[in-house]
Amino acid sequence: MKQLRLTLLCVIALAGCTATPDIEPLPGSLTYGETASSRKTQAAPGTKIQNRFLHQGRTVYETYEVQPDHTYKLIRRSMVDSLGD
Question: Which UniProt keywords apply (predicted)?
Answer without folding.
Answer: Signal
